[in-house]
């Protein structure tokens, strides 16, 4: 029997390696999914609903992403897309490097989403929907991170510490 996809866990409750963390509901009707943000030291992960999700290293470089059912990882400053191919017996990850034009479109779309999030935060166009630990003031830290990382580069490695 083929393996089934399941929705992600409750990140606010379960993403213990991302502390502090928060979930927000943006007022923009075009994006009704909650936004989740969590920090691991100076590294950050941002989820727009279940898809897309972007993970950055402490330098603010993109190290991993999950977009449109594809896992994307940084490899020597380039992006590699990984797609799950399923059979009745197994699941394999098939990788391919993204060409320069596809990488540019991917990065531009990501930057637009992050810029829209920064604008929503600056305008107060969101409702808090949880924070761990309570009172951690994650939103100002997220807003500062977004302001400092307006142009995102691709990391050399998909690891958080590289």
How would you describe this protein?
This protein is of the alpha+beta class. 24% of the residues lie in helices and 35% in strands. The protein is built from three helices and nine strands. The chain has a nine-stranded antiparallel β-sheet with strand order 8-7-6-5-4-3-2-1-9. The longest helix has 24 residues, at 100-123. The radius of gyration is 16 Å and the shape is globular. Mean pLDDT is 90; it is low at 1-6.
Order of helices and strands: HEEEEEEEEHEH
Amino-to-carboxy terminus distance? 38 Å
Q: Quaternary status of these chains? A: single chain
Low-confidence stretches: 1-6
Structural class: alpha+beta
Q: Quick one: overall form? A: globular
Domain count: the total is 1
Strand line-up of the largest beta sheet? 8-7-6-5-4-3-2-1-9
Layout of SSEs?
Elements: H1 11-14, E1 21-26, E2 35-40, E3 43-48, E4 53-56, E5 62-67, E6 70-75, E7 78-86, E8 91-97, H2 100-123, E9 126-132, H3 138-148
Antiparallel strand pairs: 1-2, 1-9, 2-3, 3-4, 4-5, 5-6, 6-7, 7-8
Helix pairs in contact: 2-3
């Amino acid at each position: 029997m083929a393996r089934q996809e399941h929705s992600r866990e409750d990140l606010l409750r379960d993403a213990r390696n991302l502390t502090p963390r928060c979930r927000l509901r943006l007022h923009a009707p075009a994006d009704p999914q909650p936004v989740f943000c969590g920090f691991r030291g100076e590294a950050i992960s941002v989820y727009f609903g279940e898809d897309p999700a972007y993970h950055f290293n402490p330098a603010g470089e993109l190290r991993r992403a999950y977009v449109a059912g594809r896992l994307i990882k940084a490899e020597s400053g380039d992006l590699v897309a990984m797609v799950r191919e399923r059979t009745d017996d197994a699941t394999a990850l098939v990788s391919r490097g993204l060409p320069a034009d596809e990488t540019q479109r991917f990065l531009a779309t990501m930057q637009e989403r992050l810029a829209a999030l920064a604008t929503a935060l600056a305008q107060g166009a969101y409702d808090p929907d949880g924070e761990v630990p309570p009172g951690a003031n994650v939103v100002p830290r997220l807003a500062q991170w977004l302001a400092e990382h307006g142009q995102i580069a691709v990391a050399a490695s998909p690891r958080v510490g590289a």
